Model the fold of this input.
Amino acid sequence: MLYDTLTRRKKPFVPIEEGKVRLYVCGPTVYGDPHIGNFRTFSVGDFLRRWLDYRGYDVFHTMNITDIEDKTIRDSGAEGISLKEFTDRYTRSFLRGLDVLNLRRATTYPKATEYVAQMIDFVQKLLDKGVAYVADDGVYFDIDKFPEYGKLSHVDTEKVEKTERMMQDEYDKEAANDFALWKFATQEELDRGIYYESPWGRGRPGWHIECSVMSRCLMGDTIDIHAGGEDLTFPHHENEIAQTESLTGKTFVNHWLHVRFLTINGTKMSKSLGNYISFDDVLAKYSAEAFRYFYLSVHYRRPLDYTEESMKIAENSVARLGNTLDLIEGAMNQPDVNLDYTEKESTFIESVKELRGKFEAAMDDDLDTHGALDALHAMSGAINRYIDIGANKGVLTIAATTYLKLLNALGLYEKRAGGAGGITDDVISILADLREKLRLEKNYDLSDMIRDDLGKIGVVLSDTAEGARWKIEDS
RNA sequence: GCCGGGUUGGCUGAGCGGUUUAGGCGUCCGCCUGCAGAGCGGAUCUACGGGGGUUCGAAUCCCUCGCCCGGCUCCA
Done:
């Protein structure tokens, strides 16, 4: 089941082609470092993508990169560098964010500037169909030619037209809601060489056309899922529908997915308010796991508020899930204390199975990541308790495999800090052994000092019944 | 003004007519520990914005009032 903005209800997800999913997620406009609000949308895209992967679908995942529009031209000009130099920089920043936050890479990241020829072709076809017209400053789509206009956002164009902003008609278009398919170059753009030749004159594509064109070129006339931030519903996605469906006569997208905005301390995060924070800011204070957990902890269609407190909760909560992995590891390193397979083993395995079912049901129900985390916490508790009473290693392995698989399906703890390797590993081991001897001699002053000092450099040492264990904390 | 969403215990956040004070975090106590951490056990918290109504029964349905947030303009 997956919610669809168009019908405003959940409906069963049935891919166009069995076993395959065509997924398009609206990507960034590369005119600045992405902030954590932007990344909420991309992260939700990642949750969706991972879940489809988990369910065995072959996912073709497209995320566009908008590298030519007003802001990129304006800001690169202000900086006095070429458009390409400017957008390359922020494209790199964006891609780095994906990696740092452990978002699975999309199948492809098409750039708007690489599809200009196809866009021109698309626009020409719309002109041929008579649903677009050439004006003095560009080519426009005539929304009166698309009677279903407004079906996605449920916007009444009659009313929208009455708003003040719309009345300020700064463009040479026939109706207020008509939108640009192609913009003729300004003098500045001509001077800077930012233009493309077209049958109607030098210029550049309008913003909305790129998604329609790239989606169609890469995945065909109809795709399964198109996702983006809630702000894109109107007018961006509405316009995409109008363009594409006018051209193909087919349904453009089967499921429209819109991600609710992130707020910070109760208000919207935006550049103009100056209250935005980058992923680097967050990662300076919290782990990547905690950050991901934070996104996962609230359903994607509900508002999510960033506060220091909610991040601390996320940090603690995700650590609890991670501690279970430590316990499992510790138990596996113990001698076999339990080779039985009795009722407590079967009960344990049963509950793990049941919780796995809960997890899957939650994710299948419109990507209920919060419900999935609940199941994971319950499973974590069950595993901890089972280890406490003396685990049968074989049974524990089965449970641990399931647990880890589900964590990974959410993108959590995929790359655990399993030691530093090499000489660092050895040095820490020597220190740990030395400390163990001191402890046996009851020299607690020195042994505590070693533990404290190691803690200061991020090595967490903990005593267990089977001797000391240590791990290097995630940065 | 129009269109959405929200309003739940110290915090976070499920529930969407009738098992269970959901779960997590926090706090406190106990077990385990030389101590700490982790884990386990227990306790704390019995909440549902205000006011009406429907019902045998409502956090859950209806009406109404309030407050908060977002979209309607480039924005994830």
Observations:
- The longest strand of chain A covers residues 223-229.
- Chain A has 17 helices and 15 strands.
- The longest helix of chain A spans residues 308-332.
